[in-house]
Amino acid sequence: MTRPPGRADVMFHPLVWIALLFVALPFVAGVNPFVGQWSGFVGIATTMVIFALFASGFNLLFGHVGELSFGHAMFFSIGAYITALYTLHVGGPLGGNLIVALVLALVTALLWAWLLARIIVPRSSGIYFSMITLAFAQVIFFISYRWSELTGGEDGLQNIARPTLFGADLLRDSTHFYWFAAAIVFLALCGLYWIIASPFGSVLHAIRENKQRARFLGYDVDKYRVNAFVLSAIFPAIAGWLWTYYQQAINPDAGSVGYSGNVVMMSVLGGYQTILGPILGASVYYELQNNVSQLTKYWEAWVGIVFALFVLLGPRGIMGLVDDIRHYGIATALERIFSRRARVVTDMQEELPPVDEETAHSAPPARAAGEPAP
Amino acid sequence: MSAAAATVPASGCVFKTEGLTKRFSGFTAVSNVSLEIPEGGVRTIIGPNGAGKTTFFNLLSGLLPASAGRIWFRDREITGLSAFRRARLGIARSFQITNIFGHLSVHENVRLGVQAELDGKANFLLAGRRLRGLLERTERVLHDVGLWDVRDARAENLSHGDQRRLEIGLVLASDPPVLLLDEPLAGMSPTETHETVELITRISPGRTILLVEHDIDVVMTISTTITVFQTGSVLAIGTPAEIRANEQVQRAYLGELA
Questions:
Q1: Are residues B125 and B77 in the same domain?
Q2: What are the residues of chain A with a beta carbon less than 8 Å away from any beta carbon of chain B?
Q3: Is B111 in contact with A202 (Cβ distance < 8 A)?
Q4: Are the Cβ atoms of B119 and A218 closer than 8 angstroms?
Q5: Which of A319, B130, B147, B235 has its CA 20 to 30 A from that of B117?
Q6: Domains identified in chain A and CATH numbers
Q7: Are B153 and A4 inside 8 Å of each other by CB?
């Protein structure tokens, strides 16, 4: 009996892989053989781990529930701005405390997510869900962009001091800050892993595969989708909290369509139906951005081309490729990729999350009754 | 039948419909059906294609809202109840066209069916200890439907017959008192048909099974009563012997097969 590809049967537990990656990142992030740069940068590594968390949170919804949110940067931005505003404006005994900042950021993001989820999740799905999340993210973006008195408008907020850790100024040092961020991200990812591996996570997968069937087993599908939406907002908010401290400044870009789109790209690049995918995707994305931008100012075009190639030739991303190589060997894996060119369209229909069946109750499911199984 | 009789409540009806009607644009699939389906046994619905059998199932299970009329489950009206709430009441259904979680393993498919009983419980995330009980039940269901050996395969990679078995496994997973099976034998080989009929017979004590089926030999063998649908209405109800002897039915339906 062969184990099907696409399921997690890696050599180590995914969390072990994540720990190994985070330990290696300061040494390899930003290495660029094209320009003879052989040592890593902690700054790039920090960006990578923060976006690994942001993308993983987004992917809880995209990869595991099958709903593509095009506005998750709003939670990142809320986490970041709340942290900045708190740090700049609150003094006294409760001022400058990183835990207080985190709690405020999470509470605000969760309230907003819960409100949104109640409004939009039961009413929309598929492309409509993507459009409505985009619209609400634009609301948050324009508040941060236009409300200059509070948010500093286009310039954003600067001179945000990094907080002390146990009374010490440890976080001023960028290497220390990296380990701090990596530890927080790792803990948060453990929480995310726990959610996905729990019985609750299994139901999310069932909803991704077949909403109607999940309903007929007795699951309140919309309740699960609402809860997943709210949970998926936690991780971008934590990432935004770290981002403000890392940058020591924040501007409206944090909540832009661009940032929402980047996490889509990272998830697809790494493999969106896996736990490691978005984390790997975030690292690869910033490595590409760093390396290509040193060679050409058109780096975004090249990153776009790489993304397009992945969508067309390997929609299961890097993790899918690794899986194929482990199961079939390199030669067959490559052959599979290139034989895919001829059936790109059908492949996309198979690999991307199913479109909502709500609108087509009577439509036959993917496999018709008489069709022979492979 | 005798085992089921013990569980019959006061009214003795598992489903009762009153003037149940389903209209699609310009076409009435189920027309003013008033039926009482007694508790227990195998209650089969037959009828030519387009007679409204599957639509009737869809109305009972909540897949489609009724255009008019009312439905009771035991003594409770369920006319406006959503599908998942009806499932929680213990009404489980299978689908005519295989409807499973294709990208998940066979084991995960069944476990999800078993796990549905935990839905809504506050400790759902922390269900580690209770999970062991669920896994034991999953194992039992997998053995029951004969899919234990392929439990790790992806559901979409199963043979057609095995997918049909999994379809029944999903229905059995929650140990429901009422099963709606929509053409469970469709596309099965003679051996698979035989095994599935045996399975249905084995599970039927203590449950009510509503069956839509075309295989007339099977229907005549396993049914407690047969309800004949024609163009959205009930043509006749009776035991297999009565239905076989019914002239109207022979003209409308059985005659075609002769």
A1: no
A2: 1, 3-4, 6-7, 194-195, 198-200, 202-203, 205-206, 209-210, 212-221, 361, 364-374
A3: yes
A4: yes
A5: B147
A6: 14-31+38-292 (1.10.3470)
A7: yes
* Amino acid sitting at position B124: F
Beta sheet of B68-73, edge-to-edge order: B27-38, B13-24, B68-73, B76-77
What region does B229 belong to: left with phi over 0, alpha with psi -120 to 50, or beta? beta
Please count the residue pairs, one from chain A and one from chain B, whose beta carbons lie less than 8 angstroms apart: 122
Given the cut 0.90, state whether the ipTM is greater than it.
no
Asked, for residue B21, whether it belongs to a domain, the answer is: yes
B209 and B85 part of one domain: yes
Q: What CATH code is carried by the domain that includes residue B38?
A: 3.40.50.300
Do residues B181 and B83 both lie within one domain? yes
Do both B1 and B79 map to the same domain? yes
Q: Which of B64, B100, B115 sits opposite A213 (nearest CB)?
A: B100
- C-alpha B165/C-alpha B162 separation (Å) is 5
Tell whether B95 is covered by a domain: no
Question: What digits encode the pLDDT tens for the residues A230-246?
Answer: 999 999 999 999 999 99
Report residue A38 as tokens. Answer: 């052989």
- The total of structural domains in chain B comes to 2
Together in a domain, B31 and B133:
no
Reference B87, options B109, B124, B60, B55; nearest CA is B60
Among B102, B117, B119, whose Cβ lies nearest the Cβ of A366? Answer: B102
pTM: 0.84
Q: Which H or E run contains A40?
A: none
What pLDDT, on the 0 to 100 scale, is given for residue B120? 56
The answer, for B129 touching chain A at a CB cutoff of 8 Å, is: no
B237 phi, psi to nearest 5 deg = -135, 140
